[in-house]
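OTOP3 protein
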Amino acid sequence: MAGNKASKQKPCHHCKSRSASAPLDNSTIHYEKFWLYRHCSSVQQRDRQAQKAGQLFSGLLAMNVVFLGSAFISSMIFNHVAITLADVWILLSILKVLCLCWIIYYLLGTSRQPHAVLYRDSHAGAIWIRGSVLLFGAFSILLNVFQIGYSVILIQCKSRVEIVFPSIEILFILSQAFFLWHHSKDCIQVQHNFTRCGLMLTIATDFLLWLLAVTNDTMHMEVESQLREVEQRFEGKTALCMCPNTTICKVFQKGYILLYPFNTEYCLVCCSVLYVMWKNVGRRISHHHIPHIKPKFKLQGVVFGPVLGTIAVIIGICVFMLYQIQATGSAPNHQVFVMYYSYYIVLLPLMSLGAVIGTIIHALEKKELDTLKNPTRSLDVVLLMGAALGQIGMSYFSIVAIVATDPRDLLNSLILSHSVLLIVQNITQNVFIIDGLHRQPFMSPGKEEEMKEEQNHEAYDQRRVNMLGLGQEIRKVSLSYIHTYSHLSWKRRALKEISFFLVLCNIILWIMPTFGAHPVFENGLERSFYGYSTWFAIVNFGLPLGVFYRMHSVGGLLEVYVTA
């Protein structure tokens, strides 16, 4: 009795290390309660209803915060006299301070309570996505350092808010990155509604920071695109706030421009991780849902995928460098757009073909589907489908503009082909990834034998089964899996080759628009057809989603590669 009592009073860090497969005493489970459902006869029913109510109210909180922030940002765009950028910064600073207070409270209070984290979601917080949070967070911090340095140099024409806002942003990024790295797998079992509201408030804040970053990026692209026209019209006039001709100022300015896209990606990645944590609040994972094996990334048995992918990356980097040199010059060369779109027209069909072949192999493989409830996988599917809408939407707008003007022109025909192939590639790749995410991971004969021994160990101890009989049974299972392995090995090798090739292709297609290659705006065709403001709004919506889609596809394809 004394031993049992002492075990219940151990702190939460002991609960984190507890095996999820061990049966839990009902006294350690904190069932949710809500005043609307206090008369429910069943504790489990009251818990389910309270969970739904908590999700509803926290979702309403996030919705109101997003609407308020969106109204501020929209007012700044359409009526920048009444609502200025400084007003938006003040609102977002207040939200970030509130999020900081909640994150600190979660780290020092909620997560340290007894039995606070009885379960951890093994599917949530994959190493690649947590690594993305750290990488993009580091670049975002450096971005804010450049912004502070630039504002300090031009302090005579900059407001104090332009120094305070990035300073608070640095603290917010540091605390959020630490929080997500250590607690992204938590299935918190205490203070359910307060935790949900804190997570939703942080999600809403990250979304508004992304919205503001996209808006500012749009204005920056507009200034760069019309720079030559401005210099011709206002030659001889100097700006009120101009960077002095010093090296440090130029470094801050160029560094800010270079690192700006990483801030938008950081906000989107954080939103996705926080959403999974929100879904996992109050979740109790059965020991049957715990995976018996954790596949690891090993570069074995693949040759053609890495080789072809590396060739695609090298050629893509060369095309990108030539594009950046010529397209940003005083007179963009028509041939540089032909070269850029030609690269895409060669690469996209290869990616689509690989995805189609991979989907066919999945169908032939007849591997069991993973039907267990998995919030992380559900979010991955939603993000893949939603983020793909950015590139697909922009492609359809380009198709309409080209068909309505002159599709027989060389550049126009290339843009038309690029748009059609991009739509096909997004759809085929999504089908391949989603199908792969729902497949059970392959188990080699050695791992299957190990699992068999582990699962039968307890029964063996209880029934004293003869060792010879057990060995013969395991040997039969191993022989069966060896036969299956020899029959399906070529399919698994093909899936690994295709997945690795698509990973490298998506990486180069992420690098090119992230670091400034935006031919959809710079070629001038769609801009002249739809008008400057309309096409900017379309690009503003589609381009960040397209960049996020490529990055998220890399994570999904790596998971398909590992489980193949």
